[in-house]
Amino acid sequence: MAQIKIDTIHDAVQEHYGSIVERVQQSQASSCCGDSSQSAAADCECSSTLYDPQLLENLPVDVTGLSLGCGDPVTIAALNPGETVLDLGSGGGIDCFLAAKQVGESGYVIGVDMTPQMLAKANANKVKMGVENVEFRKGYIEDLPVKDNTIDVMISNCVINLSPDKAAVFADVFRVLKPGGRMSISDIVTEGDFSPELQANMDSWAECVSGAIDAEQYAGLIREAGFVNIEVVDKVGAEEIIERKDGMPRIYSARITAYKPK
Ligand SMILES: C[S@@+](CC[C@H](N)C(=O)[O-])C[C@H]1O[C@@H](n2cnc3c(N)ncnc32)[C@H](O)[C@@H]1O
Hints:
By secondary structure, the protein is an alpha/beta fold. Helix content is 35%, strand content 22%. The longest helix is centred in the N-terminal third of the chain and has 20 residues.
């Protein structure tokens, strides 16, 4: 992988998602991960195609209109009442609000995001919806602002591909999960590697394309962090929405689940 400074990637990604919030506020943003034809998040009609419409009933358009994911990690997680959930890269909060409904008043949901505009939008949505059991925290998914062994379920929707240090992400998720806790991830993965030139392209990285890594390598990093029962399934080709260029591997939206041993 190309040697790009972690701060360079964080800054490019933060700028990208900050500007999406600003454009959504002006009703101009149109697709997941941005409005470029390169965007890798599959099914870019976003919330309307990623989720069962029944799940979205009663969610305001301010929430559904800022859905930038590539799957439905909340349904995959099969949440139980009373569970504590952590959403990595919570964006406008759609998965946090869906999870909050499912864990109920005795449960709790923490969303972590590094982009101030996203956090402001998520908090405004929280107030608008009058939801009490959700909290949004500013932080990096590589260094989570969360105590050890406190989380039942980690969910994440189209975010870990954006991280410049995926090994650190999985190591920190392992730290915060309770023994027996689980991960439920929707993310972009590949079959093969991007060329170093594409990996160094920060626009492509921020659009959920060239930060994505090979599915086997992704599963390997999860294993190295200590997780067991790792599954990478339901890979959906993203060809229709990405113009394949030289130096590009096959790109998929996948669902990935794993457990911290008891
Ligand atoms: C593609 S959007 C997905 C948002 C949300 N999960 C959804 O489904 O709508 C990626 C989000 O992850 C956040 N993000 C990306 N890299 C991050 C990192 N290293 N640490 C914290 N947040 C990050 C961005 O600020 C952005 O809000």
